[in-house]
Every structure is written in structure tokens, then in C-alpha cells.
């Protein structure tokens, strides 16, 4: 991966990083990403979507009829943004109030995955990204399902991370006041799994779902 003027952090550069391990960890922990691209007539489009990373490639998938995926398949530049909201930063003034977060921006040129083996690896990776281990618990996709699905690769050519942690940075003039300040940590939690109304009662909750509901 390289980094150019485009991924040089200007605002609050001390929060920025180009560390690949950090970028990968932020990408892998996020259930979804937002893909930014320009449509044929030049207007911007930001699409929330599921992703998975294999090495230095981010894969997304969708209906073969998807407008955004058709556009990406044409090999255009795209930007993918990923955000974890880690908490509210509650300062003594609105100006210094903020959020704790980990975010990543990836720039790359998208391509259609036309190799069937690569597409299958990507589809399994997407299933396992959402629920680790799930691809080995479910039936394999049919030829018809594969034909209805487009897989797009976005090489993580150039990327940056930005991380904010810790207390508010209040204005020194506000420190003596009795206005509360601190942080409200956020984390993603899940409730116990709910079986489908049409699930046969003898079917046990599989390992992938048990693990996800412990997260
Ligand atoms: C949850 C959350 C809330 C935020 N709220 C605000 C807000 O209210 N107001 C505000 O001004 N900013 C906010 N930010 C920060 C915002 O994402 C930008 O970093 C900031 O606005 C600077 O933008 P810029 O275009 O001037 O960045 P520049 O520093 O000019 O961007 C240059 C390059 O730095 C990298 N970069 C910039 N921002 C990020 C990022 N967040 N993650 C990864 N790489 C990045 C990219 O490679 C980009 O091309 C928030 C971020 C998060 C994650």
C-alpha cells in the first residue's frame, strides 16, 4: 500500500495513521462500509454495503442489476469509508464536544471479479465476515444465485485511519465551572438470537450464531 497527498491527514493529523495492521483491524471489525462513487452523470453516490477483506482487497457484492455495482464494474475510482463509534465526548461546551471513534478511508480503482474461483472465495468471505464460520454451516450457492450476484474488488491501494480516544479537550477557561464533562463509551451488543417462526423446533442454534450473540 502506498500513500500520497490524497491520504495525508491535514485536520488533526496526530489522530491519523497509515499503519496497515490498524487499517485492517478497523475494516475487519466493521459489519458494513460506505462506498462512495460517482454515477455516470457525475453525481456522487454513497452506498452502505456489507464487505469482506481478503489480504489487501476489499470485496463487496450485490445484485447483478445494482446500478452502483454496474458502475463499479466499469473500473472507476471509489472511496470506501468505515466508522466505529466508540463513544460520546461530552465537553463543557458544544465547541469541544466530540466523539471517540476509529475510522478508515480507502481509495482504489474498483474491478469486476470475473474469475469464478475468486468470486466464490469473496462470497464465502462476505458470509463469514458477518458471522464467522457460517459459510460451512449453510448450503452452497446455486449456479442461478451466482449468476444473479456481482462481486466487486476494491484493492486497498491507498488508505488512512483516524482514531480519537480519551477525554474532552476543554477550553482552559471552562475548567473551573460545574458543567459535567467526560465520555459515554459506546459498544455494539447483540440480544439473544430469535429463531425464525418457521424453524423446526429440533434445530439447534449453530456455533456461528452462538458466538455472534456472545459478542
Ligand atoms: C464518528 C465521527 C464523527 C466526526 N465528526 C466530525 C464533525 O462533526 N466535524 C468534523 O469536521 N469532522 C468530524 N469527524 C472527522 C472527519 O471524519 C474528518 O476527519 C475531518 O472533518 C477532516 O476532514 P478533512 O476533509 O479536512 O480531512 P483532511 O485531513 O484534509 O483529509 C485528508 C485525508 O486524510 C484522511 N482522512 C481524513 N479524515 C479521515 C477519517 N475520519 N478517517 C480516515 N481517514 C481520514 C483521508 O485519506 C483524506 O483524504 C468525525 C469523524 C468520525 C469518525
Overview of the molecule:
InterPro entries: Pyridox_Oxase-rel, Split_barrel_FMN-bd. It holds the Pfam family Pyridox_ox_2. The structure is a single chain. This protein has 215 residues and is an alpha+beta fold. It contains 5 helices and 10 strands, in the order E-H-E-E-E-H-E-E-E-H-H-E-E-E-H. Strands 1, 2, 3, 4, 5, 6, 7, 8, 9 and 10 form a 10-stranded antiparallel sheet that branches. It is globular and about 65 Å long. The model has no long low-confidence stretch (mean pLDDT 95). Flavin-adenine dinucleotide is lined by residues 6-11, 83, 85, 99, 101, 103-105, 160-162. The site of flavin-adenine dinucleotide (FAD) has 16 residues, from strand 5, strand 6 and strand 9.
Q: Helices and strands in order, then pairings?
A:
Layout: E1 16-17, H1 20-29, E2 32-38, E3 44-54, E4 57-63, H2 67-73, E5 77-90, E6 98-109, E7 111-112, H3 116-130, H4 143-147, E8 149-155, E9 158-164, E10 182-185, H5 207-214
Antiparallel strand pairs: 1-9, 2-3, 2-5, 3-4, 4-8, 5-6, 5-10, 6-9, 7-8
The protein binds flavin-adenine dinucleotide (FAD).
Flavin-adenine dinucleotide binds at residues 6-11, 83, 85, 99, 101, 103-105, 160-162.
Strand content: 25-35%
**Given this structure, which CATH class is correct?**
Mainly Beta
Distance between the termini: 31 Å
Largest sheet: 10 strands, antiparallel
Any guess at the CATH architecture?
Roll
Average of pLDDT: 95
Structural class: alpha+beta
DSSP E strands, number: 10
Q: Which stretches are low in confidence, meaning pLDDT under 50 for 5 or more residues running?
A: none
